[in-house]
Write a structure and sequence with these properties.
It is a single chain. The strands form 3 sheets. The protein has a 7-stranded mixed beta sheet with strand order 3-4-2-5-6-1-7, sandwiched between helices. The chain has a 3-stranded antiparallel beta sheet with strand order 11-10-12, with no helix packed on it. It has helices at residues 21-34, 73-77, 97-107, 129-135, 199-205, and strands at residues 9-15, 39-44, 52-57, 63-69, 85-89, 111-116, 138-142, 144-145, 152-153, 155-160, 163-164, 179-183. The radius of gyration is 17 Å and the shape is globular. The chain has 5 helices and 12 strands. The protein has a single domain (9-204), classed as P-loop containing nucleotide triphosphate hydrolases (Rossmann fold). The structure holds adenosine-5'-diphosphate and zinc ion. The site of adenosine-5'-diphosphate has 15 residues, from α1 and β8. Zinc ion (ZN) binds next to loops.
């Protein structure tokens, strides 16, 4: 773990779905609690209009109590004066305000742990994640296992009716019937865009 002589830094846990981000966040929070730190855990909730109790849950069943939030500034609204460690899961669903919130928390001596998926279903940078990865003291990029070929997986494959979702479908679907699989770059399918020719590629070559 990073440990500067002055308190206050940002740790990012990045990776695709099933890569173990929640497991890792839960592990860090448990260890901070054992060290008798005051910890607050938040989780972004897309369709919740009000803050409610929720849980950070990993795909293998571990859970941790968390407060569900809709906006980045909700973290500051619920911040306790004695909190030392702030953990936020599913950061990719929060607005860009999370960059300022994390920066302010780190500047005021908090250890900030942020977990999120850094690419959307198209394989492109997701919301504030790339900026958070740039400004963090530590970044751990985790991989799942590609369900097609067994290689390390770094892409979220969105499926609708078991078929790959097209490039132009929305980045975030609320309450949709889609499912996701972890896949590697080579098994990742995004109909409607030629291999490698994402918007990112086009922006840089136009
Ligand atoms: P994340 O928060 O990144 O979605 P979780 O911590 O919730 O990840 O879940 C990780 C767990 O998911 C793994 O320990 C494993 O038990 C399970 N799992 C299911 N499918 C896969 C997969 N394709 N690759 C790796 N782990 C998987
Ligand atoms: Zn693969």
């Amino acid at each position: 773990m990073y440990h500067g002589s002055q308190g206050g830094w940002i740790e990012v846990i990045a990776g695709v779905m099933f890569s173990g981000k929640s497991e890792e966040l839960i592990r860090r929070v448990r260890r901070a609690t054992i060290a008798r730190k005051q910890v607050q855990v938040f989780k972004s909730q897309l369709d919740d209009r009000y803050s409610t109790q929720a849980a950070v849950a990993s795909h293998d069943g571990a859970t941790l109590e968390a407060l569900s939030i809709a906006k980045a500034t909700d973290v500051m609204r619920h911040l306790r004066t004695d909190s030392e460690v702030i953990a936020v899961d599913e950061v990719q669903f929060l607005d860009e305000g999370i960059v300022g919130v994390a920066t302010e928390l780190a500047a005021t001596g908090h250890r900030v742990i942020l977990a999120g998926t850094e690419t959307d279903f198209r394989g492109e940078p997701f919301a504030a994640m790339p900026v958070l990865m740039a400004i963090a003291e530590t970044v751990d990029k985790l991989y799942a296992i590609c369900v097609v070929c067994g290689d390390p997986a770094c892409r979220n494959q969105r499926l609708v009716d078991r078929r790959p979702a097209p490039y132009d479908s929305p980045t975030i679907l609320v309450g949709g019937l889609e499912t996701y699989e972890a896949r590697c770059r080579h098994c990742h399918e995004v109909p409607g865009v030629a291999a490698g020719q994402t918007q990112l590629f086009q922006d840089q070559h136009s």
